[in-house]
Amino acid sequence: TEIIGGISRSRIAAVREHETMVYVAARPRSEAAIGKGAQGYLGGVPMHWMRDWPMPFPFIVKKAKGAKLTDIDGIRLADFCLGDTGSMFGHSPAPVADAIRRQARRGLTYMLPNSDALAVGTLLSERFGLPYWQVATTASDANRFALRVARAITNRSKILVFNGSYHGAVDETFVQLQHGDQTNKKGLAGEFRDLTQGAVAVEFNDIEAVEKALAEGDIACVITEPVMTNSCMVLPQPGFHDALRAATRKHGTLLLIDETHTISTGPGGYTRAYGLEPDLFVLGKPIAGGVPASVWGMSADVAARWQEYEATKEPGYSGMGTTLSANPLQFAAMRAMLEDVMTDDAYKWMEERAERLQEGLAKVIEDNGLAWHVVRVGARVEFICAPGPLANGTEAAQAHAPELESVIHLGLVNRGCLIAPFHNMMLVSPATKKKHVDRLIMAFEDIVSELAQ
Ligand code: PMP
């Protein structure tokens, strides 16, 4: 029979059948509520990503607090998905919940700054080192707006993305390399434009390909995560970021670093930890603890060029900003996050426990004689059911084993642990206790040895 990640397909199917039964039997209330889809929603869920969970149906959450989720059947899970990073610092951290409660009585949106807004500007500059910031509502929006600025001030049409990367619902980044050809991403819905007119995809860690693309002279900006976290997890090879920065400078191309996931590295993100020097910087999801908010920063040089550009334009309809952006609820939550939650101490705990998780998972893999590997970027850990390290998006796509991975995920849920649905990502929050980490290692040991048997 066919083998996937060292496990036979028939064994995967048998384990799936058993785990599905266990999941369903434990959740009569969730099954009654959503087993056949929730009424009133297209596809039975309020957002179609919710169909991507590996469970037969999603469970209905009653409460999420710290690193724990409780569902309506009374089952408690240690949450390592943490809203796929939106709740990376735990669900409803007390300082954020308090700040939201305070602000809730004082107005929720009014398109004017308040004193929290003033404080946050300073906090962002101090923490991330860039002098000028704007606030948006999603990381997708922040990336879109930052790319608009990049094209405007360079007067160049194209951007460069790494193959297999993800930066949100940003049309212009939806290109890929397939057998050497540039194409739109295959899953992209309703797109009739040839996006390769405005973007080029090259492999991560391939500095020669970057150089060659930049030499064309039409690339406004390279957009990248410091580590590719949306494509299994691909680490930069030694020297890659230095070479990327040198190449972009040489060709007059701007560098946008998207820290939305890699803020797991440390208080100033991967950028501060590794001394990256972006022209544009984006951080979304966790920055307001789960309140929809994102920030994008720029260097003094970019800001000066933008001012010059703006002076030449008709005012209005810039294609940037949205009405609810920079609202007081966002600022209350961001201020609490930056001042009281995303602290050096919090990161120290997260790092320590994430290291414990990484070592525990690696040992299970070794004990079961599997050719898998584990990668970690600060508080973000990923197991990959294939040998590593991976060098780029193409290798990551080959390593990804959805059929096997989904049964592991389901097995983990049945053993009290939730991890991210799209790949094998686990986040350790300041609220994640050692016992949660140990529960996940034990659950992993249990389901992996079931499969490897
Ligand atoms: N950038 C990165 C690196 C991401 O992983 C994501 C989402 N997974 C985004 C941007 C977009 O975030 P959002 O969906 O909140 O707009």
From TrEMBL:
Pfam families: Aminotran_3 (PF00202). The keyword Amino-acid biosynthesis does not apply. InterPro entries: Aminotrans_3 (IPR005814), PyrdxlP-dep_Trfase (IPR015424), PyrdxlP-dep_Trfase_major (IPR015421), PyrdxlP-dep_Trfase_small (IPR015422). One of its GO terms (molecular function) is pyridoxal phosphate binding. The keyword Cell inner membrane does not apply. Keywords: Pyridoxal phosphate. Its cofactor is pyridoxal 5'-phosphate. Belongs to the class-III pyridoxal-phosphate-dependent aminotransferase family. This is Glutamate-1-semialdehyde 2,1-aminomutase. It comes from Aquamicrobium aerolatum DSM 21857.
